[in-house]
Amino acid sequence: MLSFTEALHDGYGQILRVDRIVHYERTDLQELVIFDNASFGRVMALDGVVQLTERDHHIYHEMIAHVPILGHGRVADVLVIGGGDGGALAQILRHEGVRATLVEIDGSVIETARAHLPMVCEGAFDHPRAEVIVGDGVDFVARSERRFDVIVVDSTDPVGPAEALFTPAFYADCKRCLRAGGVLVTQNGVPFFQGPQIARTHAARKALFSDATLYLAPVPTYTGGPIALGFASDDAAARGALAEVTERFARSGLATRHYAPDVHVAAFALPPDVRRLIAG
Known about the structure:
Layout: E1 3-9, E2 12-17, E3 20-26, E4 31-37, E5 41-46, E6 49-53, H1 57-72, E7 77-82, H2 87-92, E8 99-104, H3 107-116, H4 118-121, E9 130-134, H5 137-143, E10 148-154, H6 168-176, E11 178-187, H7 191-206, E12 211-217, E13 227-233, H8 242-252, H9 261-266, H10 272-277
Parallel strand pairs: 7-8, 7-10, 8-9, 10-11
Antiparallel strand pairs: 1-2, 3-4, 4-5, 5-6, 11-13, 12-13
């Protein structure tokens, strides 16, 4: 019996049975594998770490996309750094009139998602309001003169190709690419295991934005408890008040599985342990 063992955290891991290997390759940048599992459906892993599963990816993708868009309330242009599986892009494009640009460093991830993860990307790469760029997101925000209302950093953990997406210089370039009152959201790791990483990256965003915090999303296959998503803006109202978010959500016509206005607001309520991580 084949199995996949993830050992991202020292002394702790998770094992998933591999019922069928769907795709395997070593790209120019990383090891990419897609397999089927009886409990979670289709699974994608990069460099030995689970990135998403068919069964629970909607939690992460809905929360990373809808929270900044509905909290902001006036979004026209969104930039996604990473996100080569297309899940965040698909959710963003469900907002009528919103244009999205995706910059993914590994084109093999995009092509593999097209072929083997249609339930995740939902045709988003070919959407008329989507622009897909295979390139380095760090370089893109350093050089681009374009401006966005929301930037979503849908990255892997800070090793390998994604390491530069967790630096003060990158966050500063993201801020430069935001319109006034814009929002930066980042994948930030699991507080239970990755507290020092979260504290360090939060401090970098806090130095740049007048309002910086985290919000949490419970994704079962991101082991160790809820995952933290970094949230930063110069407009404190961009977090979204319940009445405003409820009205915007109703107008959007979105049908969601995890995201809801009260879930949106509650996600910013941080346990004391997490508050202490970002209190410095």
